[in-house]
Amino acid sequence: MAIKKQFIKTKPVCKVTFSIDGADAQTAAVVGDFNNWDPKAGELGKLKNGTFKATFDLTKDASYEFKYLIDGVFVNETEADAYQWNDFAGAENSVLAL
Question: Which pTM value belongs to this model?
Answer without folding.
Answer: 0.93
